[in-house]
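A.,

Following up on our hallway conversation. Structure tokens first:
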């Protein structure tokens, strides 16, 4: 199982490098169902894995000119505030409710990205008098705060929400949105992990090894992204969101039907760190 877990760590990095997100969706299930960690440590551990890996990927994208530092600073700082607050609020929500909310948001984001005529790669951006792209600051701030809160509550990096927000609201080309998203994820993950500190025990040696493998994956993904068109990345990312969101919604359908399974009957609630 350990070998499989580390192989999947590379997949986490590859996903982050190619799509600017998605890796964190894989991280928690890998920790819980493949490596046998309990849900709470798995959620907390996913944040430094995704955060450090994303930072390495962001550096590669920055060298390629695919990181908008101005947008990342605005979005990231606001998201960090929400992420810390969300981590502190996480104890008040059941796992099933958290995943149901997350799946609905993922499906909505995918629908926005698939809508024709919006946020296409290379589309002209509205600009200020100095020629820089004009961002809808109020909307960016609201989305950044919402992404941060969800990151803290659910224990994910938030790239699958950040990328659509940058593409649809910020009119950022897809490849640049991917690189910028990685920097925001790194900032977001640090803040979210700070919110979990002191509440769970972290196996640091294992976490360092797992993160190293994920970093190798993101280096490969960051290299490969230059060979894929922005439009193809956008479509692929949206379809990825649709599939994962639909599966999560189906698995947690009890929340919507009123037949939610109690936390005590969930496999993740009985797991212990190996």
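Then the amino acids I'd put at each of the 274 positions:
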């Amino acid at each position: 199982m350990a070998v499989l877990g580390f192989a999947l760590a590379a997949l986490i990095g590859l996903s982050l490098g190619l799509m600017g997100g998605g890796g964190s969706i894989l991280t928690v299930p890998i920790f819980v169902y493949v490596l046998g960690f309990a849900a709470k440590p798995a959620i907390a551990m996913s944040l430094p894995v995704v955060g450090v890996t994303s930072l390495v990927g962001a550096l590669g994208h920055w060298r390629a000119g695919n990181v908008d530092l101005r947008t990342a600073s605005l979005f990231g700082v606001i998201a960090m505030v929400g992420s810390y607050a969300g981590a502190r609020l996480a104890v008040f929500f059941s796992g099933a409710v958290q995943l149901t909310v997350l799946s609905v948001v993922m499906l909505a984001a995918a629908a926005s990205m698939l809508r024709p005529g919006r946020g296409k790669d290379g589309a002209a951006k509205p600009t200020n008098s100095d020629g820089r792209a004009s961002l809808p600051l109020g909307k960016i701030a609201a989305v950044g705060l919402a992404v941060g809160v969800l990151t803290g509550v659910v224990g994910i990096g938030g790239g699958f929400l950040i990328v659509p927000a940058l593409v649809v609201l910020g009119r950022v080309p897809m490849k640049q949105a991917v690189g910028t998203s990685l920097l925001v994820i790194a900032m977001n993950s640090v803040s979210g992990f700070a919110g979990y500190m002191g509440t769970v025990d972290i196996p640091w040696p294992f976490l360092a090894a797992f993160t190293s493998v994920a970093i190798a994956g993101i280096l490969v993904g960051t290299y490969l992204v230059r060979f894929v068109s922005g439009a193809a990345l956008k479509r692929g990312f949206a379809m990825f969101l649709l599939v994962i969101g639909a599966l999560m919604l189906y698995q947690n359908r009890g929340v919507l039907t009123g037949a939610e399974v109690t936390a005590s009957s969930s496999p993740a609630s009985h797991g212990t760190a190996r």
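The chain is about 70% helix and 0% strand. Curious whether your intuition agrees with the design.

B.
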